[in-house]
Amino acid sequence: MSKLLVKPKAQSGLMQEITPESAGWTYVGFALNRLKPGETTAGDAGEKELCLVLVSGKAKISVDGEDFGELGERMTPFEGQPYAVYVPKGSRWQAEATADLDLAVCSAPGGEGFKAKVIRPGTHPQMKRGKGTNTRYVTNIMPEDDGSAQSLLVVEVITPGGHTSSYPPHKHDQDDLPAESYLEETYYHRLNPPQGFAMQRVYTDDRSLDETMAVEDGDVTLVPKGYHPVAAVHGYDVYYLNVMAGPKRIWKFHNAKEHEWLFTGI
Description:
Elements: E1 5-6, E2 13-18, H1 20-23, E3 29-35, E4 40-44, E5 48-56, E6 59-63, E7 66-71, E8 84-87, E9 92-97, E10 101-109, E11 117-119, E12 127-129, E13 136-142, E14 153-159, E15 164-165, E16 170-171, E17 173-176, E18 180-182, E19 184-192, E20 197-203, E21 210-216, E22 220-223, E23 230-232, E24 237-245, E25 254-255
Antiparallel strand pairs: 1-22, 2-3, 3-10, 4-9, 5-8, 5-10, 6-7, 6-9, 8-11, 12-13, 13-14, 14-24, 15-23, 16-25, 17-18, 19-22, 19-24, 20-21, 20-23
């Protein structure tokens, strides 16, 4: 199995835990907690900043004793936009599930001067991107132009069955602004219906990295460098939650030259 594909390590509780150390990189961390009503999870941000994303379900969430109340409304990631909470560097957070809960913990190096806040559905509108079988639906949870974080970029995408996404192929693995930014990235995948699968390829121009993976419900893929398109097979919609971070909070990508013709009319 590819080292870029991380399977869930449990059926409940802490199902995924990606750290910079386990991924072999510098910036991005990701965890996924699955809780039953009444169960809790908590943590210290330390030197990191966090984005808690309610992938599905509801929870009471507090940061440094500030009670944000019960948050969440969608019961699957395929219906509506998410609630999320930004947790700044040096803060402690806690979440108590009030319904079956999938809570993602996205992390990257933090900075000074940022405050905890709730990011509600509709803060950033869902966008339809692409045409034809390259159509997908994108919700920026923490985009680069919101000025609300030091490092974190967080976005979720729904790709209908039979469609492609993160496509035409693009990459962001060079610290060469304004042409391209260096960003590590994780993909947390969900499938609808859940027994389905999708395909993701991660590859570089020289093919020194070239991995094609069948991703299933709950899998995480790592993108340390290279292009990283996703294909949703017929009959199964794909949701993924992306976490990106690098030395600068800028998303500037480079398109694969041999596929740039696909942008005509997109």
